[in-house]
Amino acid sequence: MNEPRSQQAKKGKITPAKKDAKPDTATIHSFGFSCHAPEAQAVFVAGSFNNWSKDALPLVRQPDGHWRADVPLIRGNYEYKFVVDGQWCCEADCEPEYHGCPKCVPNGFGTMNRVLEMS
Prior knowledge:
The protein is mainly beta. It has one helix at residues 5-10, and strands at residues 28-36, 43-47, 60-61, 66-74, 76-84, 87-89, 104-106, 112-118.
């Protein structure tokens, strides 16, 4: 039979967590997503970092017509798209030709995804 954790701790079998222990945030960095869509009513960012949830990360409208959000991410490579008024796009006014989309790659839906490399 297994002993309760409190009994294991008393016998020195497990080490209790330090009260002032802080999570390791050395690998977490904030990335600023930005999309220029001055006529939009709502803009979100969706990608491999949030399981492509189209409404989990809203961007905030700026006076200059850009929408922005800072998102904490761990180092790695991600693909993402913006959702502008319910429409998926690499960047507003970028699709459907895909010319001029910086760091875009084709996806399985016949459109493009943006690529983010956090190193």
